[in-house]
Amino acid sequence: MDNINLSENINPISGLISDDVYAILLKNGLIDKKLVRDFIIRRKFVSLRANNINSTDAIEAILNEYPYLQFDTIRKIVYQRLG
Q: Looking at the domain assignment, is residue 16 inside a domain?
């Protein structure tokens, strides 16, 4: 998975909502880009783990895509409890 650009032109959650809905939500400030980024990171982590990549290597792979984040930040994102 390539690094996701959270601009108005790209819908990184197209599997959940249509591009039109995403654009409207983004335009009206109803999309939290950080939460979308975290969702994508968790999804990538689960995918890597499903391919028998150990946790540390999976986090390192994600770190390569998001170099502005720290290892511990990614670890917290992927292990945070939702709900």
A: no
pLDDT of residue 2: 41
With residue 19 as reference, give the H or E element that holds it.
Answer: helix 19-27
Tokens read off for 67? 């170099």
Distances (CA, A) of 35 to 30, 38, 67: 11, 5, 17
pLDDT digits (tens, 9 = 90+) for 60-82: 999 999 999 999 999 999 999 76
Range of the domain at 56: 32-79
Q: How far is C-alpha 15 from the chain's CA centre? A: 13
* pTM of the predicted protein model: 0.80
> Residue 68 domain-assigned?
yes
Q: What is the DSSP letter of 32?
A: -
